[in-house]
Amino acid sequence: MFLSIDEKAAKWFTNEFEIHTVRMYPQYDGFGEKHKGFSLAFSAESPSNIGFTKEINGINFYVEGNDVWFFEDTETCLSFNEVANEIQINFKDTHCQ
Q1: Which residues make beta-bridge pairs with 28?
Q2: Do residues 26 and 38 lie in contact, with contact meaning Cβ atoms separated by under 8 Å?
Q3: Which of 44, 43, 60 is closest to 52 using CA atoms?
Q4: How far apart are CA 42 and CA 96, in angstroms?
Q5: Do residues 57 and 15 make contact, with C-beta atoms less than 8 angstroms apart?
Q6: I want to staple 81 with a disulfide (CB 3.0 to 4.6 A). Which of 38, 51, 88, 93 is the partner?
Q7: Secondary structure of residue 75 in the 3-state scheme
Q8: What is the pLDDT of residue 11?
Q9: What is the mean pLDDT of each run of 10 residues along the chain (97 residues)?
Q10: What is the pLDDT of residue 91?
Q11: What is the per-residue pLDDT for 3?
């Protein structure tokens, strides 16, 4: 599992939500690029059983242990799309570019 979050994406979380802890998890919604029926979701909550964590610009991004399956064998890349003014998520089998 590898997580890549560019600085502009991290700043977006700070500006939009004024948070310093972000849980990343799979959400069942009927769509999904990586796992059919699931997409990546975020919430501002404290961890209870961390499976993976990464700190970027003072923000702690984490995945609970029971959600690690969604991120295995891939690289999850979060970047900021300036045209859409929102977070862009890409899943890759190799490192993000």
Answers
A1: 38
A2: yes
A3: 60
A4: 20
A5: no
A6: 88
A7: strand
A8: 87
A9: 86 84 86 69 91 90 93 88 91 63
A10: 84
A11: 85
The residues facing 5 across adjacent strands are 78
Q: Which residues pair with 90 in a beta bridge?
A: 77
Cα–Cα dist 22/55, whole Å = 10
User: Quick one: the chain helix, strand, coil %, rounded to 5?
Assistant: 20, 45, 35
Q: Report helix, strand or coil for 77.
A: strand
Quickly list DSSP for 38-70: EEEEEE----SSEEEEEEETTEEEEEEGGGGGG
- pLDDT (0 to 100) of residue 19: 81
pTM score of the predicted model: 0.82
Q: Which residue do the tokens 């900021």 mark?
A: 80
